[in-house]
Write a structure and sequence with these properties.
Blueprint lengths: L1 H22 L39 E4 L9 E4 L4 E7 L2 E6 L2 E2 L7 E10 L7 H6 L18 E5 L5 E3 L10 E3 L3 E2 L2 H10 L5 E4 L17
Parallel strand pairs: 2-11, 5-9, 8-10
Antiparallel strand pairs: 1-4, 2-3, 3-4, 6-7, 6-11, 7-8
Length: 219
């Protein structure tokens, strides 16, 4: 009798466990794995690096043009009045670039030579410029933010340079302190074509802009 009661009690206890397990199954992993947050969708942010530079007017884009001149091939001619730079090719042809030139009171004329060349040049504002603009830095290392741009060709016996610019919108304008500026793309192209010692003819400013034919015999 005692054995029978023990067997019945054990069976009843097993039934309770079985029923409880069915009602509330055992959780082997009581904590849920954290879900990775979904990436938020944002509109692309337009930064200075993603903004395309303004496109040059067609007449200021680099191009080969007719240019009769007695100057030898390899000579650089600066047409100050029309804001063009010509690299003489010979046979009545020249490679023309759009440029920025000196503002009123800062234009000049004459014949010089390329004294030296530099890639991504440092900028040392000349003393005359510092006296006019004392807030200018005394030195600026070469780089994209440097006002001399990607390349510079220094004109012997002067403080002037043919150089690039980080402000391409100024091409075709009279804004500099006497230097001749091109877009960084154009000055890099010219830099590879012009040698140290090359002749540079800077034509004087005239009251009226004229065609691309100029009498160089006046210099």
């Amino acid at each position: 009798m005692t054995n029978l009661r023990s067997i019945l009690a054990a069976a009843a206890f097993a039934g309770i466990i079985s029923t409880s397990a069915a009602a509330a199954p055992l959780m082997l992993f009581p904590f849920q794995q954290p879900q990775a947050p979904q990436a938020a969708s944002y509109a692309p942010v337009e930064t200075e690096e993603t903004v395309a530079p303004p496109e040059l007017p067609g007449k200021f884009k680099r191009q080969v043009v007719n240019y009769p001149t007695p100057e030898a091939p390899g000579t650089v001619v600066i047409d100050t009045s029309n804001t063009f730079l010509y690299l003489v090719l010979g046979n009545g042809r020249a490679l023309r670039y759009g440029i920025g030139v000196g503002r009123e009171g800062f234009t000049w004329a004459g014949t010089k030579t390329v004294e030296k060349k530099a890639e991504w040049p440092d900028w040392h504002p000349p003393q005359e410029m510092i006296e006019r603009q004392p807030y200018l830095p005394r030195f600026m290392a070469g780089g994209p933010g440097n006002p001399l741009g990607a390349r510079a060709m220094y004109l012997g016996g002067t403080v002037y340079r043919i150089h690039g610019t980080n402000a391409p919108q100024t091409i075709g304008q009279r804004v500099s302190s006497g230097c001749i500026r091109l877009t960084n793309e154009d000055v890099s192209d010219l830099y590879d074509r012009v040698s140290v010692g090359a002749k540079v003819v800077v034509l004087p400013m005239t009251e009226q802009r004229v065609s691309n034919r100029h009498g160089l015999s006046t210099h």
